[in-house]
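To the team - 2-phosphoglycolic acid complex, inputs and output below.
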Amino acid sequence: MRKKIVAGNWKMNLNLNEGKTLVQNILSGLSGLTDNKQVVIAPPFVHIAQTAAQLQGTSNIFTAAQNCSSEASGAYTGEVSTDMLLSAGAQYVIIGHSERREYFKEDDAILAKKTAQALSTGLKVIFCCGEPLEVRDGGTQNEYVGNQIKAGIYGFNADQLQNLVIAYEPIWAIGTGRTASSQQAQDMHAHIRSVIANQYGNVVAEQMTILYGGSCKPSNAPELFACPDVDGGLIGGAALKAEDFLGIIAAMTAI
Ligand code: PGA
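Output:
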């Protein structure tokens, strides 16, 4: 049975005290997690040790970084290595978020390098993909996202992919209040699964957790998560409020 995951991406929000309170409130309302229904919290770098310490002794809830360096160590001012993240208590790292691709010009080659670096260090990867509005309007979203997947992960073997989760986030739905319909999400998730199957076969594709991201809320999560190929969500804005995040988690645990 493949894993379902709800992951919260705080982006560049919340100071240390605010983050501590949010994690406390999430933990106090959390229930229903299992080995196959898990939660990931991705705060900014400076929170990671604190968040990981708060999650110590809990099960099926993990800390993630939102980014990492593609280099192992050395003279790269301002960068954070995967080994540092692991030692601070992170178990996951988000790679290829559309904001990293767009604002920080991270291309397919650098994202594949970051993914290799993370996997070799022992971090699990949430690899993001998704098309901009003009691609969706032009009707070539399947080809566009398929190419992101091929460039990002085809270089890894099936064993390595066991430590990788895909997040499909249509850029036009991120932070806009405009959600993909459950049919649009299901269609793309099934396409992504077929792209995985083409390279690795059906067994690997069926095991791959594929999250949906983009204006996911407690109100629309049940319908999105009911789609057969949608295995949970990567949540931005709604992950900043314990009540909303817990509502989305409840939509996953109810399935
Ligand atoms: P959103 O962001 O939920 O605020 O739309 C999702 C994301 O960027 O991961």
